[in-house]
Amino acid sequence: MICENCGGEHDGSYGSGRFCSKACRGAFCVKQPKKHKNFEPYECCYCHAIIFGRNALYRHKKEKHPDMFEGHSWNAGKTKETDERIAKGVKTFHKNMNDGKWIPWMKGKHLSKETREKISKSMKRAHNEGRAHNIGECRWNNEPSYPEKWFMTVIDNEFDDKNYVREFPFYKFSLDFVWKDKKKVIEIDGEQHYRDEKQILRDKQKNEFLKNDGWKLLRLDWRWVFHNSKEAIKQAKEFIDYDD
Questions:
Q1: Which CATH number goes with the domain that contains 160?
Q2: What is the pTM for the complete model shown?
């Protein structure tokens, strides 16, 4: 392979294979013209005002649109079907991949046997301990939230059937409380389940998967549970302990 900076031949072992070393990659980047100069005009995606300078645009969004800007990326909830910029980026990505301009850094490379065994042992241990981050996208540390801890106490004190599983992997999802023998599920929904568009769509998909698989689901809104705990406990207990 040929280094794009010095033009020398190399074995491609460094990075994506474009450069022979870290020094050449750094030297190449320094020589490239800056795409975004601090005095160039930018358009605010919220009010469409023209702001000169990327730093000034950041300050403008933070001061003028705090509710929309704080904690949210510009592309949150958008797809290539709904936003022209994302569609353009996806098209460019696929074109560069197909043309060979962009090469995945792992292409042509192989992990050593020692590294593969180390990863395998770590993942097996994480799965056995129920904290693998790729099981139903559950939390890495598998720590229950306060509503879940409260409901676990309710189960221990009030339920006849205590044979449940928490954070049960189901397809690409994770279920809060599952009684496998009865094929029943109880989900404790926090505020994000009613405000976050991605979470709302995910819950709808989860509901469909459960329905198609013959599961029965009870969703409890934590805000309602907090103010109506006795009624919520009664409803959940009847759902689990009494057969339909």
A1: 3.40.960.10
A2: 0.45
